[in-house]
Design goal:
two-stranded antiparallel ribbon; 59% helix
Length: 86
């Protein structure tokens, strides 16, 4: 089992513990609506909105314009070569 698998298992365990500890209802008010939902659902929805927002901006900046890899995706060797002047 590699490092990625171990980290994934740990994250899943933390997510389950977090979910179990945050099932109490919280009130949400948005414009004219007021609802009561579990805290973990509220946090999960906020996470999903943040993830989708980040994905959308990444997509709109690169893939939609037909650009392959951005400068951020260059291998580390490229960075050291740039500093040397080559």
């Amino acid at each position: 089992m590699g490092v990625k698998e171990i980290l994934l298992i740990l994250l899943v365990i933390l997510l389950v513990v977090f979910s179990i500890q945050n099932i109490q209802p919280v009130g949400i008010q948005f414009l004219f609506w007021k609802i009561s939902v579990p805290a973990v659902l509220t946090i999960g929805i906020c996470f999903l909105i943040g993830f989708l927002t980040g994905w959308f901006f990444r997509w709109s900046r690169g893939e939609r314009k037909g650009i392959g890899a951005s400068d951020d995706d260059k291998p580390l060797g490229s960075i050291s070569e740039t500093r040397k002047g080559g």
